[in-house]
Amino acid sequence: MTKTVSVRPRHRTGSDRPRASLTGLLREWLPGQRWFAGKDRPVTELSLLSMTELFPGCLHLLVQTGQGGVPAPVGTPWAGDCYQLLLGVQKHPAPRLGRAYIGRPDEGPLAGLAVYDALHDPHSAELLLERLRQPGTAGPLRFEADPAVRVPGALAPRLLDAEQSNSSLVYGDAYILKVFRRIQPGVNPDLEVSGALAAQGCTRVPAPVAWFRTTQPWPATLGVLQPFLPGADDGWTLALRALATGDDFTTAAHELGRATAEVHLALATAFPSDVPGENERTAEAMTARLEAAVHCVPALRPFVPGLRTAFGALATCDTGPPAQRIHGDLHLGQVLRAGPEWFVIDFEGEPSRPLTERRSAQSPLRDIAGMLRSFDYAARQRRPWRPEWARRCREAFCAGYAARAGWDPRKKHALLRAHETDRAVYEVLYEARHRPDWLPVPMAAIERLAVRGG
Predict the structure, then answer these.
(1) Could you give the CA distance from residue 249 to residue 256 in angstroms, rounded to a whole number?
(2) How far apart are CA 61 and CA 222, in angstroms?
(3) In this predicted model, which residue has the larger pLDDT, 161 or 132?
(4) Which label site among 25, 53, 140, 312 has the fewest CB atoms less than 10 Å from its CB?
C-alpha cells in the first residue's frame, strides 16, 4: 500500500512556504495543460490564493497566474487567471501516475515529495466522491448535495481523456463530476442553469445532484456532479460518423434544432427577462472583439472591412427575439444523443468571457450561430470538403428550431450573419492560441462571411 503524506496546517491563504515549494513546478507545468488559457504567453507570476488539505495526500489549491509581465496580486480576482488544482503528494507514487507527475519541490514543506495531478489517481477520485456524498466543509470548501438524491458509494472512477477546458471524472457509468479548472467569482452557469432547468421539469439537461464551492478568497463554484448518460454519443462524433459512412444527418439535425428550441423556451421561463434586443450595443461589442482579435491574429486584417459590414447591418435590422439566458457556447460537442433523444450539456458558456457576461441575457441567435458553425467544422474534417452536407444540416437544424420555437432563424438573416461572424472571429482567436493546425477552418468562414456576406 502506498503511504500518503499529511501536510499541515489544514488550510492556508497566501502562504509563502507552500508557494516556495510549488511555484517553480507549477509555472512549468500549467502552460502544458489543455485547460490552461494562456498558452501563448509565459507564466511570469504565480500567487497561491488558497491551499486546503482535502484528505491525507491530497491538496486543494487555487492559484492565480500573471502573464506577459502583468502581476497577479493575491486576492484580486480580476488580475490574471485563477485555476483550481488538486495535487497528490506522496513519497513514492504508483507507476501508473507517471503521466500525472508534476515534479518534486526542492524546498519548503513539500521538499523531496512527488507532486502530481490527483484527478489521475483513482484513490483520490474515490475520496473526492465521498466528500460529495457526505456534505460538509473543509476549510473554505463547501460540499453540498440534493437531499432527494442518494448517490451510491464504491463507484469506480475514470478520468475522461477528451480535450476540454475542464476535467471530468465518470463514476461507475452512473455519474459524471466536472471539476472546473478556470475559476471566476460567482455561481458557475453550469450549476445555476442545470438546477433551474431541472426545477422547470426540462428533461433535456441532466440535473445536478451534488456540487462543491469555495468561500475564499471569494465565493465561486468549483465542481458539479450530474447523472452520466451511458451509451450516449456526442453530436460531433455522430456527425463525423455520418460523414464517413455517407449516412444522412438531416433528420438528426432537425431533431437537434427542436431540442435546442425546447431548452431556450425553458431558459426563458426559468430566468425571466425584460431585456430587449440591443442591436447597436451588440454591434459595438462584436466590433471590439474583432479589433482585439486582429491584434493577436494579423491574418484577419484583410477581412476587417467586410466583417465590420456584417456588424454594421445590425443597426438597420429588427431587434429579433428578446434577449434571454442562453447556453453561450453551443456546438456539436455540447450535445449528447442517447437513443432517440438529444441532451444539452456544459452551460458554462465561453470560458474566456467574464462570468457576468456569460450569465447575462443574450440573443438566442448566438446559440444557433454556434451550432451552424459546428456543422461547418464537421464538414471540413474530411476531404474533399462537403459544403452541401453542411448546408443541408444547417437548413434542417433551423427548420427544427422554427417548428418548436415559433419563429424561424433563417428569417433573421442580418442578425444570424452577425452572430455567426462573431463566432467565427472567436474561433480564429481560439485556434490560433490552442490548435494552429485548425486555423484554416474558421478562416474559410471568415472569408465567406466577409466577401460573400454569408
Answers:
(1) 10
(2) 11
(3) 132
(4) 312
